[in-house]
Design a protein that fits this description.
Length: 421
């Protein structure tokens, strides 16, 4: 019978890889909590309307990529393509704004976008997502970006660049929209059908289009940043000063528009050359209108999401110190020794030592091989003779040296030996 395989674009994360995931998540938890962020857990399924209203009707995500279906009750539901909208929904549903003027939230989990799968692009992928709601100050932007860069440094990611831009605000963006609309109208014939339609609805989204003709059409388009208002300019300047004060290197990329409609003012992306076309490891920005647009009070916010698959694919190969191998392998020979090994192994685990043993009566040679394969630091040799003489041998698997350990009080001796080294 043929085995059933995973859905295209959905993948398993196996032991050997999961250690890196844990390392990345643990590091995120530590760094974010040092900045006062708290974890929030949100559902993967939401009402479709939430994403339509927040990400924007004319974005690629909403137009082409969402996993939307009617459930058995006839309600339109969508597997979340990103987390910001859901965090905002939870923020409003539980009136978090009423209990604290500042909310610092992070969440981990799978997102779903029906894009064409390729290297670094999946249909189920994972994000580490951060949102800070309350203050609209530019120094907060610098702080959030600084935290992202610190996190990436702590997971030992190298060779990335930070790009920032400003997308203006509802006061200044319409004037740019007009200029861009007029510019693109002259090139209408070279645009794809979707983009021709976007000309009338949301010309900014033409920047996201992957079709060659559209890419060429926008390549010499005017820059939004040249049309932003004085207040947005001032905000962008302060943000840059904040980054400089925190010694965070960045470059302004006036072409970056991000693929979601909710952004205002500061936006940013962390990119790398080694990911090919899917070069963004993380992206984010300010969204001062989103909470209001979702029916809440006027609360500005800023956040980012890191693509975990992409991040992990970039981490250095050698991360031996994050993979936990056994501290001790207990090789035993004979019934009695085996029973002692079983008890000792579980007692040591109880005391926080990673111990392994064998239950299938294999030869000492194959147990030693197994210990080696597991990468155990030490092997305890426990045979009938050893039991008689009330001592076992502890072998250092790296150096090969061997030392005796008395059977009485063995547990304590092993704990102090293994914890000390
Ligand atoms: P985004 O730029 O759409 O932003 O996604 C953030 C990151 O998720 C990307 O930089 C990338 O690393 C990863 N990513 C996106 N799509 C895929 C995919 N198909 N396969 C693998 N990785 C992918 C957002 O989602 C915003 N919600 C970020 C944000 C939070 N803005 C404010 N707060």
């Amino acid at each position: 019978m043929e085995i059933i395989k995973a859905v295209r674009g959905f993948k398993d994360i196996l032991p050997g890889e999961t250690e890196r995931w844990q390392f990345v998540e643990d590091t995120a938890r530590k760094v974010f909590s040092d900045f006062g962020f708290k974890e929030i857990k949100i559902p993967v399924l939401e009402k479709t309307e939430l994403f339509r209203r927040s990400i924007g009707e004319t974005t690629d995500i909403v137009e082409k990529e969402m996993y939307t279906f009617e459930d058995r009750g006839g309600e339109s539901l969508t597997l979340r393509p990103e987390a910001t909208a859901s965090v905002m929904r939870a923020y409003l549903e539980h009136s978090l704004h009423a209990s604290d003027a500042v909310s610092k939230l992070f969440t981990f989990g799978p997102m779903f976008r029906r894009e064409r799968p390729q290297k670094g692009r999946y249909r189920q992928f994972h994000q580490i997502n951060v949102e800070l709601l309350g203050p609209g100050d530019a120094l907060v932007d610098a702080e959030v970006i600084y935290m992202l860069m610190l996190f990436l440094e702590r997971v030992r990611l190298t060779g990335v660049s930070l790009e920032i831009n400003s997308l203006g605000c509802p006061e200044c963006r319409p004037s740019f929209r007009k200029v861009l609309g007029e510019y693109l109208a002259k090139k209408e014939k070279t645009l794809c059908e979707d983009c021709q339609r976007r000309l009338g609805t949301n010309p900014l989204r033409v920047f996201d289009c992957k079709v060659e003709g559209c890419k060429a059409a926008v390549s010499a388009a005017p820059f939004l940043i040249d049309y932003i208002c004085e207040r947005c300019k001032e905000h962008f300047r302060e943000d840059q000063e904040g980054l400089k004060a925190l010694k965070t290197a960045f470059a302004v990329n006036p072409r970056m528009v991000r693929g979601l409609d909710y952004y205002t003012k500061t936006t940013f992306e962390v990119t790398t050359k080694s990911l090919g076309a899917q070069n963004a490891v993380a992206g984010g920005g300010r969204y001062d209108r989103l909470v209001k647009d979702l029916g809440g009070p006027e609360v500005p916010g800023i956040g980012f999401a890191v693509g975990v698959e992409r991040l992990i694919s970039l981490l250095p190969e050698l991360m031996e110190d994050i993979v936990r191998s056994p501290d001790l392998y207990i090789a035993s020979l004979g019934q009695e020794a085996r029973k002692l090994a079983f008890i000792l192994c579980n007692r040591l685990r109880h005391l926080g030592i990673l111990a392994e043993t064998d239950y299938s009566n294999r030869s000492l040679k194959s147990q030693m091989k197994r210990s080696d394969k597991l990468g155990a630091r030490y092997t305890l040799l426990l045979g009938e003779n050893e039991l008689k003489e009330r001592k076992a041998f502890l072998r250092n698997m790296k150096g090969g040296s061997q030392e005796p350990v008395g059977l009485d009080d063995m547990e304590n001796q092993l704990v102090s030996l293994l914890k000390a080294r």
